[in-house]
Write a structure and sequence with these properties.
Rossmann fold, 7-stranded mixed β-sheet, 14 strands
Length: 390
């Protein structure tokens, strides 16, 4: 009797998406009952945001298909247009590769058309990291994907409860923990001597330098305030260096509306003041990003990695603004508004803290095997009803 091979397709649309599922991809690749398909698109292919296609192939994965759908401009209009282009591109790709299951991660706006496309084409959809609460457009996107999905792999008990309360079948909702915690558990702190020479522009950070990591994205629902928001962070970093001789690794923002505003402010700052205490980086391989966090004093900004991975690693985090509003947080996080004085106060408090204990709010590092087992064995269906029906 011929063995049935289940084709599982991951659509990866950003650098963060890949980092969070890398170990899961490796686990699925080992499974002889599964054919892994990787579709790469959106900002993950664009040089200005850190093209990760080379990283993926170097990690031993085959890229099944690529598509280009991002409309240049990084504003509200181009976000909507990029969403439409993605549906057009993916419909052709799904028709060609015929996956048995499509997997989408979290809440990036580029992932909503993945869910729409697979649903209209009668392809079962699995959603990782649903049920969480945040600010920005991510909140609407995440819950819309949940309602279009057939399988749910959530990261916390509260997230599981919220997904079930949205009318999803409890038998299809699994608290597996976050797969990125598996990677955080395995990465060692030791950093190579030439690490900082490989990446970025600007100041060269040395192994023994004290530094913070900055990763601040635009908030799409507050786009009119973006310039002031990033200016407050820039001002706080300048003062922290002047007072404490603490350098910074600053990551370029993602592709959301408002990115051009942040990028312009950062370029103006770099060209006018030539800060010799900041290294600007577009992208790092997932393991090296974790290494960087492990060797830093603190992470600043509004990335979920300051809440998710850093909580598990015990790394101090200063979370600025509303982008991560109401997301579950460990004791390593301090929330502040866009006020440079408050940001500085929080940074000083965090860098003076002893390292926080490991927190397992988002899992204990065994998520990958759980997800892989369920994906490979659970019957796949695409018809569903709201679960309030008796």
């Amino acid at each position: 009797m011929k063995k049935t091979i289940r084709k599982i397709c991951f659509v990866i649309n950003s650098r963060a998406n890949y980092g969070r599922v890398k170990l899961l991809l490796k686990e699925l690749k080992k499974n002889k009952k599964i054919k892994l398909q990787i579709v790469l698109g959106a900002s993950s292919l664009l040089y200005k945001f850190g093209d990760i296609s080379k990283t993926i192939t170097q990690d031993g994965f085959k890229i099944s298909e690529k598509y280009y759908s991002i409309v240049e401009g990084e504003n509200l209009l181009t976000m909507a247009k990029s969403t439409g282009h993605t549906i057009n591109e993916l419909s052709n790709i799904f028709y060609k590769i015929k996956p048995n299951l499509v997997v989408v991660l979290a809440d990036r706006y580029e992932n909503l058309p993945v869910a729409i496309c697979s649903s209209y084409m009668n392809i079962p959809l699995a959603h990782i990291q649903g049920g969480e609460i945040t600010g920005s457009i991510d909140e609407k996107v995440r819950h819309a994907i949940t309602k279009l999905s057939d399988l749910h792999f959530v990261s916390t008990d509260r997230a599981k409860k919220f997904v079930i309360n949205m009318g999803e079948n409890p038998k299809k909702v699994f608290n597996t923990g976050c797969p990125s915690i598996d990677l955080a558990r395995l990465v060692k702190k030791k950093i190579q001597r030439n690490f900082f020479k490989k990446y970025g522009v600007g100041s060269t950070i040395k192994i023994n330098d004290k530094f913070i990591v900055i990763l601040q994205h635009p908030v799409t629902t507050e786009i009119e305030s973006t310039a002031n928001q990033i200016s407050q962070t820039i001002k706080s970093v300048k003062i922290i260096y002047k007072k404490f001789n603490i350098k910074a690794i600053w990551f370029w923002p993602n592709v959301d509306a408002g990115t051009d505003i942040i990028s312009k402010k950062l370029r103006q700052f770099r060209e006018r003041e030539n800060p010799n205490y900041i290294c600007f980086i577009k992208n790092l391989p997932p393991e090296n990003y974790i290494k960087l966090l492990l060797n830093s004093l603190c992470i600043i900004g509004n990335s979920s990695s300051g809440i998710r991975e850093c909580s598990f690693l015990g790394i101090p985090s200063v979370n600025i603004g509303n982008r991560q509003a109401n997301r579950e947080k460990g004791p390593n996080v301090i929330d502040v508004t866009y006020d440079y004085k408050k940001i500085i106060k929080a940074i000083i408090k965090q860098i003076n803290n002893k390292k926080f204990k490991k927190n397992t709010l988002y899992g204990n590092g065994n998520s990958v095997k759980k997800i892989s087992k369920i994906m490979s064995k659970l019957p796949l269906t695409y018809e569903k009803v709201i679960n309030y029906i008796d």
